[in-house]
Specification:
Helices cover about 50% and strands about 0% of the residues. It is mainly alpha-helical and about 90 residues long. The termini are far apart.
Length: about 90
């Protein structure tokens, strides 16, 4: 489906903050607004007990059951403690 243009009236400060956020996330305002509209308008969104909407991209995250082989959490924690208390 071809994209359509939409005109919105938004406070200038909100636009500037949204532009900065979009730049940090390497996306466009159009994509952000489109994703928001999709999130709030689909019935597929499930709500957990605390009435928090979980976006589709979060639902697609995979939970690792085991640490990755290149991860040495004990060494990382040790380094963190040394930096913190030295």
């Amino acid at each position: 489906m071809a994209a359509q243009k939409l005109t919105l009236s938004i406070e200038p400060n909100a636009i500037e903050r949204a532009k900065k956020y979009a730049k940090q996330k390497h996306t466009s305002l159009s994509k952000m607004v489109e994703q928001y509209f999709n999130d709030v308008s689909t019935e597929e969104n499930t709500i957990i007990e605390d009435d928090v909407n979980i976006s589709d991209w979060v639902k697609q995250l995979v939970i690792a059951t085991k640490p990755t082989p290149d991860s040495d959490t004990k060494a990382e924690y040790r380094e963190h403690i040394i930096k913190k208390y030295s």
